[in-house]
Amino acid sequence: MRIVIVTGMSGAGKTTVLKMFEDIGYYCVDNMPVALVEKFVELAVAGNSDLKNIALGVDIRSGQVFGGFEDVLERLSNSGVKYEILFLDCTDAVLVKRYKETRRSHPLAVGDRVDKGIALEREALAFLKRKSNYIIDTSSLLTRDLRQEIERIFVQDEKYSNLFVTILSFGFKYGIPADADLVFDVRFLPNPYYVEELKPLTGNDKPIQDYVMGCPQAAEFMDKLEDMINFLIPNYILEGKNSLVIAIGCTGGKHRSVTLANELYRRLSDKDYGIKIEHRDIMLDSLRKK
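Predicted structure:
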């Protein structure tokens, strides 16, 4: 039996993730009171139980008794129960935005500002995050990306390093992405925009890819970039970083940056960490002309 405790910041997506666990055959309980966790697990692992895998949603809504959860986990470990902890995290700015959009109040911010409730929750959950087997930052994840991560960990049983990498192409004329950790400027490469037959195409099209990657500097840049990323990521993981946004920019975010972002994604896609690619500005030029 596989027992997964789903926890983390309120608003980071625990309810959504529990629905995903249901879809892959787990018996799920949301908002499980801390006082009942130990007894429930004991019954679940008993010989007469027909449960195969369970996922328990445990969070700050348990109130003041949540502080005793660390003792509960220790007793479970001492009794030989094997469990995993999945911690869903999110940046404060995104959490505040989500609460404003849903018009819900934070469980620890009744009558006060949301950001104060978030700060209190982070402090209360610090011990859980330290104990977690998996940490997923949902700040920039679409639902489909989150589902892929859940399936990768709990269905495909792939190795997981608590890091999710986003490779993002963008256009400098539309601004540098605010959430970028690493920004690379590829405007030094020849621009397909000035080749009439290539101008309407994008970096997702082979003629653009051949044009950009046919430049010797592009291939050399990619080799050096790949080497640097492969050096940085293990060190980021050691420091506890769980989300990395690598932004590659050209003038309009349509040709060169898209091509090189696709190439970097191809080179890194067989690694142990989660990875996705996003082209932020690829369609903006065509939309502005309408």
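Summary: The first strand starts at residue 2 and ends at 8.
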